[in-house]
Design goal:
single chain, alpha/beta
Length: 138
């Protein structure tokens, strides 16, 4: 059985999310999963839940959703608020629809651009998580 993944990719910090997306697509192919749908959200991770919900309500098109985003520290605590609220809603959507929604958003309190570059593999891990969860919940 082929596992169909949906990707929700943040356009904010696109230089980093682009590299994350490439790694995620390569890993999906390696795991024999197919990326059936992709939605790019402007500007970033905070705006992902609506796109995730749309993807999950489209009649079984995807078995799981992989989020790809990057939240880098700014001059205020905005990064903490963004990550906390996005992660909470992503969990809620997974539970509401009974399908895995994997967190491939790097960031958190104080992550620098250099640290974000070092964490590009978060997207690969999210693909792995989504595929394994679909297999284990069958």
């Amino acid at each position: 059985m082929t596992i169909n993944l949906g990707f929700v990719v943040a356009e904010f910090n696109r230089d980093i999310t682009y590299m994350m997306e490439i790694e995620a697509r390569e890993h999906a192919r390696f795991l024999d999963a197919e990326v059936a749908d992709t939605i790019y959200v402007p500007p970033g991770a905070y705006d992902m839940p609506l796109a995730i919900k749309k993807m999950l309500t489209e009649g079984g098109k995807v078995d799981a959703v992989v989020t790809i985003g990057c939240v880098i520290e700014g001059a205020t605590q905005h990064d903490e608020i963004v990550v906390q609220h996005a992660a909470r809603k992503i969990i809620d959507l997974s539970l509401e629809f009974g399908k895995p929604v994997a967190l491939g958003i790097s960031g958190g309190p104080g992550m620098t651009r250099m640290e974000a570059t070092e964490r590009i593999d978060y997207a690969k891990r999210a693909v792995e998580s989504a595929v394994k969860m679909v297999q284990r919940l069958e």
